[in-house]
Write a structure and sequence with these properties.
The protein is an alpha/beta fold. The chain has a single domain (3-148, 173-200, 249-269), classed as Rossmann fold, CATH 3.40.50. The protein contains nine helices and 14 strands. Helix 2 packs parallel to helix 3 (114-133). The chain is globular, with a radius of gyration of 19 Å.
Length: 277
Amino acid sequence: MKRLLIAGFGDVARRLASGLPAGVDLRTLSRRVGADLDRPETLAAAQGWADCVLHCAPPPADGESDPRTANLLAAIAKGRILPTRLVYISTSGVYGDCGGAWVDETRMPNPQTARAKRRVDAEHRLTAWCGAHGLTLVILRAPGIYALDRLPLARLRARTPVLRAEDDVYTNHIHADDLAACALRALEDDAPAGVYNASDDSALKMGEWFDFLAERAGLPPPPRIARSEAEGKIPPATLSFMGESRRLVNRRLKDVLKVTLRYPTVFDGVPRLTESA
């Protein structure tokens, strides 16, 4: 990897960029540098330059397709020289509700929300395009991303309830630093192509996750309510995540991609905080 193009220069991409080996030339596509994936005419920087591409940009906020990925691929295709490798950070939401089952990468996607359908559309576009052009494609399906500066403490302080144990769902996590490290490893020349669950080893229900955060932050645990009481008491966007339950298997991440997690569980990744955190 000598020339890296990053589409979508958010938190995880910035963490990755800070750990790039010396000598790697970096370009970014983001609105702050005038490149907008919704405006194909602004994407000239994607043409004929990079040998590796990291695609971190989220899909649009509505619809069931991802025209941003389509625009990125169209821009790259205009170059006389194509990259050899593309890494896409997707979401574990593509699996849909799995009833709490353990889920590995052989499970077929079954998206049940519009946001997950947009991610599946992006995966399909990337798979077809990379296959047609002979590019190596790595897809990292990430669950809930956390870090010290992206913990839902405001929700705890607002006393937003969670579901009681019998109604609760399993949730999955990855530290932002570990996800950046997974992506950096996936960009290396010897990283095997394929789909990987980029998740840590935690196996917590959502209420347990918030109880743990409350304990670490010195806050009272959130109230528990029945699912039948949730509408109107839990924000709709949050409630939609409570309709899906799965536990991600990350064996391929470790055994095939050869990633060693810095924070194997949330117990390693979330320090003890003060209430002012």
